[in-house]
Amino acid sequence: MFNVENIRKDFPILSRKVNGKPLVYFDNAATSQTPQQVIDVIVDYYSNYNANIHRGVHTLSQEATDKYEQARKKIQAHFNAKFAHEIIFTSGTTHGINLVANGFSSLLKKGDEIIVSALEHHSNIVPWQMLSERTGAILKVIPMNLDGELVMSEYDKLLSKNTKLVFVNHISNALGTINPIEYIIEKAHQVGAAVLVDGAQSCPHIKPDVQALDVDFYVVSAHKMCGPTGQGMLYGKESWLKKLPPYQGGGEMIAEVTFEKTTYAELPHKFEAGTPNICGGIAFGAAIDYMNAIGFDAIATYEHDLLEYATKKLLDIEGLKIYGTSKHKTSVISFNLESIHPYDVGTILDKLGIAARTGHHCAQPIMDYFKIPGTVRASFAFYNTKAEIDALVEGVKKAKTMLS
Ligand SMILES: *Cc1c(COP(=O)(O)O)cnc(C)c1O
């Protein structure tokens, strides 16, 4: 049974104080907190079997290699990839996107078209702009509406036989909107385009099935789902990963090297040059175990309840406006108090021990669309409580009184 008080005991950081007040951590969309079960795995790695992988015959190296490859299999099972070698370890979502964008440099030509959405994080915009500059491919944008939803009738119009790639996030980090990626993928495939889904914000809340989605590439960061920073994964369909050239050259990614010619290693190693974040990969596996033990259905139900509770309470504050009002959204609330700068609200909340994000949330085009400098963003995880939301609401009321 889902018991939030027991779950909170797993997270040492949740019992600390900030500015003399109990920490209320509502910046989960930026990074999640780490349970003791994952911290223990990190300590165990460095205490007992820290060694480089895939090369040594010695015991430590074999132990580390086994655990690292076991983690890859856990990740494969979690996202339901067909093969373990379709899981490429990366340093995070940004790395995964850049790996794919670089790979497409040699596959695109002038006049090809690539489609992005208006709801993207900068890391799912800039690498494609760079790709477009390198190749002459044209970048087109799926527009959004005032609820913060992508307009699918406009997407339909953008698609053509020239479309080669579509990249869109599963869930918006700035507004929480859940995008209709099933539809987006199906339509893109009808014109022969590949689809990359940025799953950085979906993986903390739902369990995506890459085969059911029939997605070509799916990228996530471990640190958004109770794992360590500097670690992530790229899922790619085997056929695509075979087609893409390697991203970086170095050790681990080769089959044979001479000065005349180098042949590349098989998947997944072709894309994993150099010594990886071994501990990070193993800890990512532990984070997935941790979240699955709680259960994604229980997490979704609980977080939805928090979202509804907080939305209602915040909207009771006069002059408070929420950005991102789709019916399909996760536990993210982006808001502003009439004419008060989000930074000032965030500063007052911090004095009260409440960690909320302020600013453009790496999604400036969304802020431009709403003609605002930024928002205050409270993003909830399964270890947050209604009592914490009450503290936020009181904090926002206090900020309003002090600043207006
Ligand atoms: C956090 C985030 C990213 C970037 O993830 P990194 O871990 O910083 O690479 C990309 N897209 C979305 C939607 C995000 O929320």
UniProtKB/TrEMBL annotation:
InterPro entries for this protein: Aminotrans_V_dom (IPR000192), Aminotrans_V_PyrdxlP_BS (IPR020578), Cys_dSase_SufS (IPR010970), Cysteine_dSase (IPR016454), PyrdxlP-dep_Trfase (IPR015424), PyrdxlP-dep_Trfase_major (IPR015421), PyrdxlP-dep_Trfase_small (IPR015422)
Keyword Transferase among record annotations: yes
Alphabetized GO MF terms: cysteine desulfurase activity; pyridoxal phosphate binding
Domain Aminotransferase class V stretches: 24-392
Keywords attached to this entry: Pyridoxal phosphate, Transferase
GO annotation, biological process: cysteine metabolic process
UniProt cofactor(s): pyridoxal 5'-phosphate
EC number(s) from the headed UniProt entry: 2.8.1.7
Catalytic activity: (sulfur carrier)-H + L-cysteine = (sulfur carrier)-SH + L-alanine
Alphabetized Pfam families for the sequence: Aminotran_5
Cytoplasm in keyword set: no
Similarity comment: Belongs to the class-V pyridoxal-phosphate-dependent aminotransferase family. Csd subfamily.
Function statement: Catalyzes the removal of elemental sulfur and selenium atoms from L-cysteine, L-cystine, L-selenocysteine, and L-selenocystine to produce L-alanine.
Protein name as it appears in the record: Cysteine desulfurase
Species this chain originates from: Confluentibacter flavum
